[in-house]
Amino acid sequence: MLIKLMKYDLIRESRSLLFWSLGISFITFLLCAFYPTIKDQASLMDEYMASFPPEMVAFFGGSGSSIATASGYLSLELFGIMAPAIFVVYGCRLAVGSIAGEEYSRTIELMLSLPIKRDIFVVARFIGIAMNLLLLTLSFVSALIISAALFNMDISPFILFQNGLNVWMLAMSLASLTFFVSAARGARGSAYAVGYGVFLVGYIISSLAVFVEWLGQVKYLSFVYYYNGYYAEADLNSLVDGILVTPWLVMSSSIIIFFVLAIIMFPKRDIR
After folding, report:
1. What per-residue confidence (pLDDT) applies to 45?
2. Domain extents for the chain?
3. CA 253, CA 259: separation in Å to the nearest integer?
4. Contacts of 138 (CB under 8 A, 6+ apart)
5. DSSP string for residues in 207-225
6. Confidence of residue 51 (pLDDT cuts 50, 70, 90)
7. Distance of alpha carbon 147 from its chain centroid, rounded?
8. 88 Cβ partners below 8 Å, 6+ apart?
9. 0.85 exceeded by the pTM?
10. Which among 94, 161, 103 is positioned nearest to 130, based on CA atoms?
11. pLDDT > 60? residue 63
12. Which among 91, 85, 38, 40 is positioned nearest to 61, based on CA atoms?
C-alpha cells in the first residue's frame, strides 16, 4: 500500500510538476543567456554593483564575487533568491496539499478508509513530497548544466549539481516544517503561514546578520543561513568552493525531526 500511495502522489502531481519543471528550466536558460553580455561589460557592471550599499547586495544574494564571473552572476541572479523562492513555494505547496489540502477538499476520509495505518499514510505522503521536489531539482540542474555549457560559464557540472541539491535541501527543510504543521493541525492557512513566514524571516535574518548585531544572535535559527549565510560568513562561495557538510547535517537533521513529529502527531488527531 505504501508503494501504491507513492505512485498515486507521483501521478497526481505529474502535470503540475511538468509545468514547474518547464518554467524553472526556461528561467534558468534565460538568465544564463544574459551572462555573455554581462561578462563583456565586466568593468562597467562591477562599477555599477559597487554603487549599491553592501546591505542591498547581501539582501539580494550577492556573494562578494564579481558579477562578471559565472559564480558571482549565478549567486546574485539565480541562487540568491530566485531558485530558493521557487523551490520553497513548490515544496510548501506540496506539503500543505498532502494532508491539510485533502482535509479541506474532504477527500482524506476516503484515503484513510483504505487498509493502511495512519503513520504509513504520513510516510507515503512525505516521500512523495521529497520525490517530486527531487524531480524538479533534476530538471533544474539539467537545464543549468546545459545552459552553462552553451554560454561558456566556467563552473563544473559537479559543483552545479551540488548547489542544486543545496536548494533541494533548503526546500525540504521548510517543506518538512510545513508538512508537520499540516499534519498536526490540518489547517492550510496555518501551514502556509508557518512555511512561508519562516522562509521570509529567515532570509532577512541570514542576509542582514552581518550588518545588524542582534540578528547575528538568532541567525542559527534560520534555514537560509545554512543554505548560503554560512558560506558568506566563512568568506566562501558554494559555486566555487562546493558544498560543506556541516550545513547539510543541520538541515537534514531538521527534516528528520519534523518528519518524526508529523508521524507522532497525525495519528492522534480526530479527523472528521
Report:
1. 67
2. 2-29+77-268
3. 10
4. 164
5. HHTTT-GGGGGTGGG-HHI
6. low
7. 21
8. 170, 171, 174, 175, 195, 196, 199
9. yes
10. 94
11. no
12. 85
Nearest to 196 by CA among 127, 124, 95: 95
Q: Which residues contact 97 (CB under 8 A, 6 or more apart)?
A: none
Residue 69 has pLDDT above 60, yes or no: yes
Measure the CA–CA gap between 118 and 263, rounded to whole angstroms: 8
Whether 183 contacts 123, CB under 8 Å: no
The per-residue pLDDT for range 141-180, each reduced to its tens digit, is: 999 999 999 998 889 999 999 999 999 999 999 999 999 9
Q: Long-range CB contacts (< 8 A, 24+ apart) of 239-243?
A: 239/63, 239/70, 239/71, 239/74, 239/75, 239/79, 239/155, 239/159, 239/160, 239/163, 240/65, 240/71, 240/159, 242/159, 242/162, 243/162, 243/163, 243/165, 243/166
Q: Which residues contact 258 (CB under 8 A, 6 or more apart)?
A: 176, 177, 179, 180
| Strands of the chain, DSSP E | none
Q: What is the rounded average pLDDT of the residues 209-220?
A: 78
Largest CA distance in the chain: 66
Output the CA torsion 257→97→174→238 (10° steps).
120
Q: Helices in 41-81 by DSSP H: which ranges?
A: 42-50, 54-59, 70-77
How many whole angstroms separate alpha carbon 174 and alpha carbon 223? 8
Residue 102: CB partners within 8 Å, gap ≥ 6?
108, 111
pLDDT in tens, 10-38: 788 889 999 999 999 999 999 999 888 88
